[in-house]
From TrEMBL, chains A, B, C:
<feature type="binding site">
    <location>
        <position position="190"/>
    </location>
    <ligand>
        <name>substrate</name>
    </ligand>
</feature>
<dbReference type="InterPro" id="IPR029056">
    <property type="entry name" value="Ribokinase-like"/>
</dbReference>
<comment type="similarity">
    <text>Belongs to the Thz kinase family.</text>
</comment>
<keyword id="KW-0067">ATP-binding</keyword>
<keyword id="KW-0418">Kinase</keyword>
<keyword id="KW-0460">Magnesium</keyword>
<keyword id="KW-0784">Thiamine biosynthesis</keyword>
<protein>
    <recommendedName>
        <fullName>Hydroxyethylthiazole kinase</fullName>
        <ecNumber>2.7.1.50</ecNumber>
    </recommendedName>
</protein>
<dbReference type="Pfam" id="PF02110">
    <property type="entry name" value="HK"/>
</dbReference>
<comment type="pathway">
    <text>Cofactor biosynthesis; thiamine diphosphate biosynthesis; 4-methyl-5-(2-phosphoethyl)-thiazole from 5-(2-hydroxyethyl)-4-methylthiazole: step 1/1.</text>
</comment>
<comment type="function">
    <text>Catalyzes the phosphorylation of the hydroxyl group of 4-methyl-5-beta-hydroxyethylthiazole (THZ).</text>
</comment>
<feature type="binding site">
    <location>
        <position position="119"/>
    </location>
    <ligand>
        <name>ATP</name>
    </ligand>
</feature>
<feature type="binding site">
    <location>
        <position position="43"/>
    </location>
    <ligand>
        <name>substrate</name>
    </ligand>
</feature>
<keyword id="KW-0547">Nucleotide-binding</keyword>
<dbReference type="GO" id="GO:0016301">
    <property type="term" value="F:kinase activity"/>
</dbReference>
<dbReference type="InterPro" id="IPR000417">
    <property type="entry name" value="Hyethyz_kinase"/>
</dbReference>
<keyword id="KW-0479">Metal-binding</keyword>
Length: 262, 262, 262
């Protein structure tokens, strides 16, 4: 089903434009990750231009991490422009459940735009699923499972991706569990945001979003596994991870640990 | 008095939530430093949610580095919510004295909220102390001494921390001088902001703020000393410093150079 | 004509204040690059203080990367204050041609302030020159040549710098081509923005802007060449590049590949 290497090669060949509305904390890392997989990032959030950019992008990545009222306006403008122009949208509901403002913003984006992939950590996704969730900081890991992913996928008409030690992916009909990665990723701020940039890059070249979600997760996490072997802590891990993404080889995908279901 | 290792272990065990209103330049590094010492950072500054987050945080870190009128509103909202909920506040008065807007903002925060620790470089702190000060760029070092720290501590009812080649700390009654660190830290933008994240993490687990200020300074600066041994310049120093914070061991604190007084 | 080492030493001695209105994505890297060459960065963009800061800076660097209506106001306030106080201005027209909002903003800055150096990539500069240009993401390279640089220099009364595999520099009368650097720089987001910080640092100590543009380009790109030898990918390249800037030696300038004309 997945064809990691071919899709990665297509990204590198086409250099698709990935329009990010990315939080301030991770903007730089997300742009560098996008470049490392071969796509072309543009980070822009002004209401004066987001519609124009989203309409001609190859994928739109909305990450609400450092939202305020002006960002929310831009999320909706960009999301609607993307939807209208058949540009696939990835939504990262950072901190959903942590404040009312965040949960409400995520629901507005889900209702008013066409989100293809909804990707969050366990706490965020459980909060959105109405399952009792507790979040302690946006980098914390909650617990979740494939049922939550399926519920979210059906409820919101999206491919749901719950990241964690094991990643749960479901489009409501088919599902997958990805078990790559390393625990040290939790010590890199925005590692979950960065994996979104990789998934969005695959979404730009392949419209089977269950597949592209798995491809993005595996690519990022296999690179992290390789990187960790020569890292002493989380800061060198981040540097080495981006280097590994840039140097990805076909054989690296033999490390993929994916279980497809349904 | 200090018990570096025990307090660090408490941070790692409790993973306290450190709410940052951090400048754009250093957001990413500050979040990664916070994770490396074992705490849980949340970087959020929208007026719509800062009160909700500050009220449930374990410490609030207000850094005015890239302030504008909207940030100022959020500083005050967050600071008041923290004060009301007995959440300790660290204030970094970046560029105080450099423009009227900055000095005025710092004074408003000091007057309208309950600041526990006021941490700045020599020029900033001298400007605030009414001592004639000149600032040339926010990364420049001014000159200051323990008298300035004591004066500030008494005047504003805070623990004052003046960073520099030697760090001066005073709560108005007791004081300390920390002589760790390396000159190359001056070449990392926001190294002073990052040390604030470490101090705030200790403040979240120990309410003796003279002690936690010293613990934060020593932890960061000892890690910097160890990092420098295998660094070729300031960019590798930053990577290695975060890695060393993550790998901190009890014996590392034997490198502490602290002189307590009073 | 150029005297790389002497001008670099002057920067290190005077530590000139480089006021940046820099996009969010590259703020941290630009500040670190500025520190590495020995200058003193200040990143501030609030309308409440940009005039005060720009007026006393040694150079002003306006980079429109993540503009919105509030940034535009600050660009103009800072630019006018700099012009009035004889502070040289470098303008980076990020994404000019990609949206109407960007092109319009660049033209307003060029018309209403005294820009000394206009530095952009091929697509941006071609768009501004009225030559048919297509931009695909702000990190993409367009094609351009010395004629475009000369046309821009004369039309806008600036020193025009077009970055790319070969950099084209012209002040309308004299011109130069710089052929240093490495293709991997394209995989570091904002590498073009960072070179602006280096040029602005040289502008602060030497008012022959054709010369200082060449000095900035050569310094950054020679450091990149040295860095690449011990880098595995773009993330380690960025770390090593900043380290090399910090460790620049006189002999490094023997690597300069510059062709002066006119």
């Amino acid at each position: 089903m997945t064809n990691y290497w071919d899709d990665l090669q297509t990204i590198r060949k086409r250099r698709p434009l990935i329009h990010h509305l990315m939080n301030y904390v991770v903007m730089n890392d997300a742009a560098n990750v996008t470049l490392a997989v071969g796509a072309s990032p543009i980070m822009a959030h002004a209401r004066e231009e987001v519609e124009e950019l989203a309409a001609k992008a190859d994928a739109l990545y909305i990450n609400i991490g450092t939202l305020d009222d002006r960002w929310v306006e831009s999320f909706l403008l960009a999301g609607k422009a993307a939807s209208k122009n058949n540009v696939p949208v990835l939504l990262d509901p950072v901190g959903a459940g942590a404040t009312g403002f965040r949960t409400e913003t995520v629901l507005r984006i889900l209702n008013e735009t066409e989100v293809s992939v909804l990707k969050g950590n366990g706490g965020e996704m459980m909060a959105l699923a109405g399952v009792a969730g507790m979040i302690k900081g946006v980098d914390a890991l909650g617990e979740a499972n494939l049922d939550v992913a399926e519920k979210l996928a059906r409820e919101y008409g999206v491919t749901a991706v719950i990241t964690g030690p094991r990643d749960y992916v479901s489009d409501g009909r088919r599902s997958a569990i990805v078990s790559n990665g390393t625990p040290m990723l939790q010590y890199i701020t925005g590692s979950g945001c960065m994996v979104g940039s990789v998934i969005a890059s695959f979404m730009a070249v392949n419209r089977d979003f269950l597949v592209t979600s798995v491809e993005g997760l595996v690519t990022f996490e296999v690179a992290a596994e390789k990187a960790e072997r020569r890292s002493y802590g989380p800061a060198s891990l981040k540097v080495n991870l981006i280097d590994e993404l840039y140097n990805m080889k076909p054989g690296d995908y033999e490390l993929a640990k994916v279980e497809f279901k349904g």
